[in-house]
Write a structure and sequence with these properties.
By secondary structure, the chain is mostly helical. The chain is built from 7 helices and 4 strands, in the order αααββββαααα.
Length: about 270
C-alpha cells in the first residue's frame, strides 16, 4: 500500500472528468436544440451543414429573383390587356369609317378617336418596372437556382413599326381605312403572341419557383438530420451522464480516503 501515488483516485478523477464533459455536452445540446455546438462535436457534420445552409440561402435568393420576374411579367400583361382593348376599339373604328352612310366629318371624329388610342399605345411602350423597360423587346435572364443558372424571358416590343406605325394610319377616308384596318389586325395578332409568350414566361418561372421550394424543404430535412438534437435520446444521455458524475464523485471521495487506512498500520 502506497500513499504518494493514489492510482485509484487518479483513475476515478479521469473517469469523472470524462463523464462531466459528456454531461456538459448533453446540457448544451438540450438547451440549444442542436447536436453541433462546436466544431469538436462533429467536424465533418459541421462542414456539410454549412454547405447545405449556404445552398439554401442561395436558393431563397434565386426564388426571390423569380418572384420579382413573375411580378415583372404580370405588370407587362396588365398593360397589354389595356392595349388589347385599345386595338379592339381601333379595329372597330376602322370598320365603322368604311360605312358608306358616314360623312367625312364623321370619319374625322373616328380618326380623332383612332389617333388618341394609337398615342395611348405609344405611351405604354415607354413604361418601366423599377427602372427596367417593360416593352423594348429585350430578353431578360432570370437566375433560377443556387448556381446562378438563368432562364431567358421572352421580351415584348411595343416600340417597333407593328405598333408604333399605327399612329401614322388614317381612317379619315374610305380609301385609307382598309390599310389601317389591316395594320390593326396585324398588331392584334402580334399582341396575342406577346401575351402568350408572357404566359409561358410566368408558367416556366412558377415551375422553377416550386422546384426551389421543394429543394429547400429537402435540404432543410437533410440538415436537420445532421444538426438537430433528438431530445428523447439526449434526455436519456443526460440522465446517464448525470448519474455517472454523481457516482464518480462519490467513488473519488472513497479513493481519496483509501490512503488513510495506512494510519492503522502505524498505530
Amino acid at each position: 500500500m502506497v500513499i504518494n501515488t493514489n492510482l485509484s483516485a487518479q483513475s476515478s478523477a479521469n473517469l469523472l472528468m470524462q463523464s462531466s464533459a459528456q454531461l456538459s455536452q448533453s446540457l448544451a445540446r438540450l438547451s440549444s436544440g442542436s447536436k453541433i455546438n462546436s466544431p469538436a462535436d462533429d467536424s465533418a457534420g459541421l462542414a456539410v451543414s454549412m454547405n447545405l445552409t449556404a445552398q439554401m440561402g442561395r436558393n431563397t435568393a434565386a426564388n426571390d429573383n423569380i418572384g420579382n420576374a413573375i411580378s415583372f411579367n404580370q405588370t407587362q400583361d396588365g398593360y397589354l390587356q389595356q392595349v388589347s382593348n385599345a386595338l379592339n376599339r381601333m379595329s372597330e373604328l376602322a370598320v365603322q369609317s368604311q360605312d358608306v352612310t358616314k360623312s367625312d366629318s364623321d370619319r374625322s371624329l373616328y380618326q380623332q378617336d383612332f389617333n388618341t388610342l394609337a398615342n395611348y399605345i405609344g405611351s405604354v411602350s415607354t413604361k418601366d418596372f423599377n427602372g427596367v423597360t417593360l416593352f423594348d423587346g429585350s430578353q431578360l435572364n432570370v437566375t433560377i437556382d443556387s448556381d446562378a443558372n438563368t432562364f431567358s424571358m421572352n421580351g415584348v416590343d411595343l416600340t417597333g413599326t407593328t405598333f408604333a406605325g399605327l399612329a401614322n394610319d388614317s381612317i379619315s377616308s374610305m380609301a385609307t381605312a382598309p390599310t389601317a384596318l389591316n395594320d390593326v389586325k396585324t398588331a392584334i395578332a402580334q399582341l396575342a403572341k406577346d401575351r402568350a409568350d408572357i404566359g409561358a414566361n410566368m408558367e416556366t418561372l412558377t415551375a422553377y419557383s416550386n422546384q426551389l421550394s421543394t429543394l429547400n424543404n429537402n435540404l432543410s430535412a437533410a440538415n436537420s438530420q445532421i444538426t438537430d438534437v433528438d431530445v428523447a435520446q439526449e434526455s436519456t444521455n443526460y440522465a446517464k451522464y448525470n448519474i455517472l458524475v454523481q457516482t464518480g464523485t462519490a467513488m473519488l471521495a472513497q479513493a481519496n480516503a483509501l490512503p488513510q487506512s495506512v494510519l492503522k498500520l502505524l498505530s
